[in-house]
Amino acid sequence: TFQVGDVYDACALGRAECLAALERYDTALEAFAALKERLVERPGHPFLDREAIRLTVTAIGESLLRSESPDLGIEHLRFALSLTEGADEHAQGYYLSRIATGLTQMAAAGETAEAASAEDGERRRALLAEAAEMFLSLSRVQANDEVAATVALRSAVENFDAAGMTERVAEVLAEFAKEHPGS
């Protein structure tokens, strides 16, 4: 009966959570995405808590990463990443790391599949390239921690190399050498 307003938003949150409980994760993600728009429009919403929604979507994403739907888990984690505030480097680092690791694991699973076609190989390379970009973003987010940033950068280079993107490997290493000449 509620078409607009705060109570409608609370009902929409309940609907999103129920869809997730019913394991209709793709529809639930769409419902959570609609709530994000309401959070942007009204930051001090009385019934919608950005952090609670982020944590709920994170829990769903983590569960899906360990299931037969890791790609859907990654989409949930991407959405949770979009809910982090720009200054929350720790949360951003967590999501970038989990997404990159999930993409790498999906690529590895595709590599071990027995009937690997050319299309499968292309998908694997795309997953590795995307994982590499996530690791590269992670190294930038962790710029204050040189050891962690270097580990993330190394993972990016390894994934670019595994994807057959030697030009990108050279670009990343050249950028690293310029930023860290003594390394």
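The record above closes out task 2.4. Task 2.5 opens with a second protein, given below.
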Amino acid sequence: SVSDIPGAEATLGPDNDLPFTPELSASVGASYILRISGFKLTPRLDISYTSEQYFDAANTEEVAQSDAETITNFSLRFADEEDTWNIVAGVENLTDETYAVAGNSSLTTGSGYAEVIYTRPRSYYLNATYNF
């Protein structure tokens, strides 16, 4: 047993939460096609919510997502009526939230480290597609 090893601590217990399993997560997306003079313009809004969660089986607070997060993405699609071509411009992480998306630690070992990976800041993109 771990308790028999000098200097070792048990990090897992029966009450630990599973990693990457928030109590609540939800997402919703909405779009609407506007037809304008033989073209289609489609704005789209996506919102996702994730409650607090742990990133490791030991439920290490130092590397957990300690707050609930709501992320908003927006895009605007412009296309011809037959969808032969389209151009999509968008923004991901519209509100420029900074939050943890993954983490790892080994605080009970000799190396004693904790690392957290954070989301990307607000980013923009532009895609063009032509179907032939």
